[in-house]
Every structure is written in structure tokens, then in C-alpha cells.
Amino acid sequence: MGVLRNISFLLYGSKNFSKNGFARASMTWDKSVMERRLEGRVVMVTGANQGLGFETSQELARRGATLYMVCRNPIRGEEAVQKVRQVTGNQDVHLQVCDVSSLASIESLVREWEAANRPLHVLINNAGILVHEFIPSADGYESCFATSTLGAFALTWALGPVLRRSAPSRVVFVSSGGMYTAPLEVRNVSNDDLKIGKYDGMLAYSRDKRRQVALAEKFAELWGPEGVGVYSMHPGWATTEGVKKSIPGFYSFYRDSFREVGQGADTIVWLALQDASALQPGAFYLDRAAQPKHLRFAGTQYSKQQVDELWSALERICVDKVKPAGEGAS
Ligand SMILES: NC(=O)c1ccc[n+]([C@@H]2O[C@H](COP(=O)([O-])OP(=O)(O)OC[C@H]3O[C@@H](n4cnc5c(N)ncnc54)[C@H](OP(=O)(O)O)[C@@H]3O)[C@@H](O)[C@H]2O)c1
């Protein structure tokens, strides 16, 4: 099954995730959505100091958003903020230092946000890593899981009351086409299977990206009625430092097919701008269109019950360590 899935992914990806896929899709786009403005909207982008997060930040700042760039390294973060201010002329751009793989760091961010009594209209969970060794996070979890699954869940979950209060609001999970190669893994949100044998970073990444798609469905179901739109998306294969470093072989083989970083960020920006009524809650987007969540013959279908189990497992991990906004003050 694994081999079939991977072949299916490469065939589908070469056609759709490439720069040619972007060019084909973009022929039919209504360009006016991208002309919308974001003055008065408070936006948070995680993993904002380089790659897709930086590009997205720049595009949202250009449109007048009040922007919080979440970066784990204060020096790289400050440089990125200054660059965005300088390039866009928008001075309402701020650094929010947070390591999203650490629940204590998320807890600090949420307490700070709460104390400032700031709204939040758009949350973009973009921070992500792909590593090839088992590196434990501050809380002892495998680092890819800690960043993309647990971190993205904890941040969204804890900012939920702010997002609901700020509605209409929305959340975007920057997932990946890699999720097509993984079924939803609900067990082992602990580290056990990742520690046994050789650590497979690609498998861990694909599982976390699949989990993000499932979490977007659950958040959409829970919060949609309160005016919070939640979506997941794939940027396509976009040239970034992260890609060059984490999958150098894949990048050099498919290099000519890779998109520019702005083409990868396009759908993230579009999801921040498009009317909620024109979007499908919980859907997985690529190139401004909802996509299937499973490839043919891949055997990756999952049930609603599995999504609920994942949700509960993550909530159990978070509940003692991160308090949702509004519940933190003692
Ligand atoms: N590029 C692609 O082709 C592609 C395809 C599919 C999906 N994606 C997804 O798109 C997202 C961005 O990827 P990218 O290609 O732009 O990668 P990138 O160039 O490596 O950028 C990732 C950003 O995330 C930050 N980050 C990582 N861990 C963090 C943490 N624990 N806390 C806060 N920030 C953290 C990094 O900060 P540091 O500088 O401190 O490391 C960096 O700013 C990821 O979720 C990735 O999985 C990318």
C-alpha cells in the first residue's frame, strides 16, 4: 500500500503541485479577491521569519493588516519584522516570540494576548519542520509532532475564545500534499512508535500534515456556527530554505518543477481574503480550490470517530499546560 501511495503522490504532485500546476490553475482565477484590504484586521502568522510564512506576512502587511509575526528566534524574528515594515511601509507589524513546539511558550503567548485584550481575525498555522532524526521537544515529544500537530492544535485551541469573540474570523492550517501518503494516525500521539526502530522523518511529517487536515475539519465543525472558518491547505512545491535543507534530494530532482515562494503563499493569502460564504469549512485547498483529501487507491480514508479520538488525545495533553484565553487569570 505504501508504494502505491507514493507512486500515486508523485504522479499527482508532478502535475498539480508544480509550477505548471499553478500556471494551469491560475488561468481561471478572479484576481479581484487579492485586491481586498485588511485594515482593522488582526492577523497572526506562525513561522513567519522565512519561507512561506515570511512571504505570507509580507503580502498581508501590504494589504494593511495589523500583523503579528510569530517567530521562535528573537533576532531572526526582529530582522524579518523590520524587513516587512520596510518593504510594505506598514508599521503595524509586530514580533511575537514563541516556539510553537513548546506548550509553555504557547501558554505565554496566550496570556500576553489575553492581557492585551487584542482581537484575532486570522490565524495562520504555518510553522513546520521536517527533520531526519528524533529530536525531543521541550515537552519531550517528537519535534515534528510537537510543532505541526500539538503546537498548531494548542495555539488554535487556546486562542479559540479570542477567535470566536472576534468573529467573523478564520484559521488556516498550512498542511502539505505529503498528507496524501499517510492515513490518519490517532494512536501514538505519544512517541512510542517514533522511537522504535529507525526514525522516519518523512513519515512523521506526512502523518502530522494529515493530522492538520483532520484537525481543521474538527475545528470547523465546532466553531463554524460561531463564525470561525477553519481550512487546511497545500502551498504546492515551493522553493524555500526549508525545502532545500530538509529534502535536498527531492528538491534537486524536481527543482525545475518547483514554484516560486510567492506562488506557494498565494492560496494562504487568498484564504485570508476570500469571503467565508465562498469557502468550504474544513476543506483542504490548493491553488484557490478545495481538493480531494485522498488519492485513488491510497487507502487513507478515516472516520469521524478517529478525528474525535485525535482531538481528545491532544486536548488531554494540553489541558494542564495551556489555558484557553479567558481562563488564564488566577
Ligand atoms: N515549501 C514547500 O514546498 C512546502 C510544501 C508543503 C507544505 N509546506 C509547509 O509550509 C510551511 C512553511 O514551510 P517553508 O517551506 O516555508 O519552510 P521554512 O523555510 O523552513 O520555514 C519554516 C518557518 O517555520 C519556523 N518554525 C519552525 N519551527 C518553529 C517553531 N517551533 N516555532 C516557531 N517557528 C517555527 C521557522 O523558523 P526558524 O527560522 O527559527 O527555523 C521558519 O521561519 C510548513 O508548515 C511546511 O510543512 C511547505
UniProtKB/TrEMBL annotation:
Coiled coil (residue ranges): none
Annotated Pfam families: adh_short
Signal peptide feature range: none
InterPro entries linked: NAD(P)-bd_dom_sf, SDR_fam, SDR_member_12
Top-level taxon in the UniProt lineage: Eukaryota
Record's protein name: Dehydrogenase/reductase SDR family member 12
